[in-house]
Design goal:
- By secondary structure, this protein is an alpha+beta fold.
- It folds into 3 domains: about 90 residues, Alpha Horseshoe (Serine Threonine Protein Phosphatase 5, Tetratricopeptide repeat), CATH 1.25.40; about 70 residues; about 60 residues, Roll (SH3 type barrels), CATH 2.30.30.
- Helix content is about 55%, strand content about 15%.
- The protein has 9 helices and 7 strands, in the order H-H-H-H-H-H-H-H-H-E-E-E-E-E-E-E.
- The chain has a 5-stranded antiparallel sheet. Strands 2-3 form a two-stranded antiparallel sheet.
- Strand 4 and strand 5 form a beta hairpin.
- Helix 3 runs antiparallel to helix 4 and helix 5 packs antiparallel against helix 6.
- The radius of gyration is 22 Å and the shape is globular.
- The chain starts with 9 loop residues before the first helix and ends with a strand.
């Protein structure tokens, strides 16, 4: 497991108007200093302060490291997942997340179809804006293909190439739509407290359906006041109080 701290580079400081805020930079550096001196709770609090002002993978990655050192596996997974959303192919983030997940005592059997699992895995590796860039490139190629035909004033016969571009355009558009749904509409959650009760309804008075261990990941499908309706990959559904769940 890689527990090295993510550091701010001079280029990052120069290019980011948010990081140019000296107070945020000072808080981040102070958190790193506390981490180096094994003051993990203090470091976590300072990273949390920085995260309130900047949505950056480095901050969440370091928060995950500090939480792991505090033996808070739920908070560690939550912040590694937040970091992964912003930097989905970062090796350190992925390795640390996998390491902490592998140490969970209880794991839920994934009963979803292979296609749904494959789709989730694929989409987690690509950012929404990367789909946008790919869509733009294919559109420009199609537009250039049409303009070339107009300039030469004749019908160009590149049927296989045209079909390939159109298929790519459709697949990328579908992928972009699914990614938008996952990112903007669907909400992931992580259990951040040990032995969390899941009720049949949004109240402590409702009967307990089952319990969740710290670090388990769920889909949030509804909300009622301070309660979240969650679903697991094995199909189980219930209501959890917000104090036991962190939203990615």
């Amino acid at each position: 497991m890689r527990l090295k701290l993510a550091m701010l580079t001079a280029l990052l400081l120069a290019c980011s108007s948010v990081w140019a805020d000296e107070a945020v930079v000072s808080t981040f550096q102070s958190a790193n200093e506390a981490y180096r001196h094994a003051q993990f709770e203090e470091a976590f609090k300072k990273y949390e302060q920085a995260a309130q002002k900047i949505n950056d993978a480095n901050v969440y990655y370091n928060m995950g490291n500090a939480a792991f050192k505090m033996n808070k596996v739920g908070l560690a997974i939550l912040n590694y997942e937040r970091a992964r959303q912003l930097n989905p192919r970062n090796r350190d983030i992925l390795e640390n997340l996998q390491y902490v997940q592998s140490g969970l005592e209880y794991k839920v059997e994934d009963k979803r179809s292979w296609f749904v699992r494959w789709n989730d895995q694929l989409l987690s590796w690509v950012k929404l804006r990367e789909f946008g860039y790919a869509l733009l490139v294919v559109y420009i190629l199609l537009l250039g293909r049409g303009c070339l035909g107009l300039i030469l004033k004749k019908q160009l016969t590149f049927k296989s190439f045209d079909r390939f571009l159109i298929i790519c355009l459709i697949l990328i558009a579908i992928g972009m739509g699914l990614k938008y749904f996952n990112q903007q509409i669907r909400q992931d959650g992580v259990v951040i407290e040990p032995n969390v009760k899941v009720h049949f309804g949004p109240s402590d008075d409702d009967r307990v359906a089952f319990r969740l261990n710290e670090g388990m990941q769920v889909d949030v499908i509804d909300k009622s006041n301070d309660w979240y309706r969650i679903s697991l990959v094995n199909g189980e559904i219930g209501w959890v109080h917000r104090k036991g769940l962190g939203l990615v």
